[in-house]
Amino acid sequence: MRATVWAGRNSVEVQSVSDPKILNDRDAIVRVTSTAICGSDLHIYDGYIPTVKHGDILGHEFMGEVVEVGKAVGNLAVGDRVVVPFPISCGACSACDRDLYSLCENSNPNAGIAEKLMGHSPAGLFGYSHMLGGFAGGQAEYARVPFADIGPLKIEDDLTDDQALFLSDILPTGYMGAEMCGITPEDVVAVWGAGPVGLFAAVSARLLGASQVIVIDRVPYRLELAERLGATPLNFADTSVLGELQEMTAGRGPDHCIDAVGMEARNGSTVVDVYDRVKQAVRMETERPHALREAAMSCRNGGTISIVGVYGGMMDKFPIGAVMNRSLTIKAGQCHVQRYMRPLLQRIRNGEIDPTAIISHHLPLDQAPQGYEIFKHKRDNCTKVVLNP
């Protein structure tokens, strides 16, 4: 089969690789019909995620048709159309029992590697390093899905792939980012990042009752899309974010701040931004946490910081004093996708959310390298690239 593989920093290739096979009775094989390039894939592309190896198949947002099932998979049949959540979860451990699917205790066969960096291991993930299981990803013609009796969600034929695909990751991730804020009526929510997750977080915050949602970015066409989706755009290249947010909230700051940027945030005009870029480049720091620092300094006293942008390790110069002295609450996590798939599918059916609004490009799988470059450099007004094997 053909698949997108990591070929080194800033390089992916579409190569012929071996077809996946059933390895466990709870496996399924899915013929991929749609897959997408995620912002967190760019962290791998840029070389900032450890334990990625040459030839690893990338991608964790995918859906398709079941073509084979293991003997223990009773809920799926050949021919079923499914969307696959990016965390791989057993459904039976203590974490899964509490709906904390991205913390599954049984799905990462390389848990010992993750424990050295994080203390404890999260779940295994598709296409996201050997530290997180070394599982082949979904930017391919076929994919093996472990624990297929727990993860995949069947999709009826009345929905298109474009409507359902993002249930695999970015729609639930944005929604969880808003949900973790505990939004009440009249709350003001600020979202750092007008990429796909930030846009879905903004839409979700409005659905959950926020009176105003402010989206912070510097890319004009993305801010225009945020405004069309009901948010107030704020271009950090044109103004002081802290000062502007105070002005917009009568000096209090937003009630909730969502970091949908993660480890490659940049400002471009401050000494600390240069500091972060140099330290990250020489691997003395794994993060560029500019957005997270700004969120901590902007949030109102007693407010909430919600982190759904991906971080990988250690950061410098985080204002923990502001967090402690001003009673800020930090909530974070890889999304527990399985918890949100069915209710969000219903919101799509009800017309409350239109996932297709963020798609800018459809490309064949063989053009994945071009897709990565377009997405990374925001060319051709790119917001989201969907690949069709």
TrEMBL record:
Residue stretches making up the Alcohol dehydrogenase-like C-terminal domain: 196-264
InterPro entries, sorted: ADH-like_C, ADH-like_N, ADH_Zn_CS, GroES-like_sf, NAD(P)-bd_dom_sf
Pfam families: ADH_N (PF08240), ADH_zinc_N (PF00107)
Alcohol dehydrogenase-like N-terminal domain boundaries: 25-152
Keyword Zinc-finger: no
Top-level taxonomic group: Bacteria
Cofactor(s) in the UniProt record: Zn(2+)
Gene3D superfamilies, per the entry: Medium-chain alcohol dehydrogenases, catalytic domain, NAD(P)-binding Rossmann-like Domain
Single GO molecular function: zinc ion binding
This protein's UniProt keywords: Metal-binding, Oxidoreductase, Zinc
UniProt-listed PANTHER family: DEHYDROGENASE, ZINC-CONTAINING, PUTATIVE (AFU_ORTHOLOGUE AFUA_2G02810)-RELATED (PTHR42813:SF2), ZINC-TYPE ALCOHOL DEHYDROGENASE-LIKE (PTHR42813)
Family indicated by similarity: Belongs to the zinc-containing alcohol dehydrogenase family.
Protein name: Glutathione-dependent formaldehyde dehydrogenase
The species this protein was found in: Mycobacterium gordonae
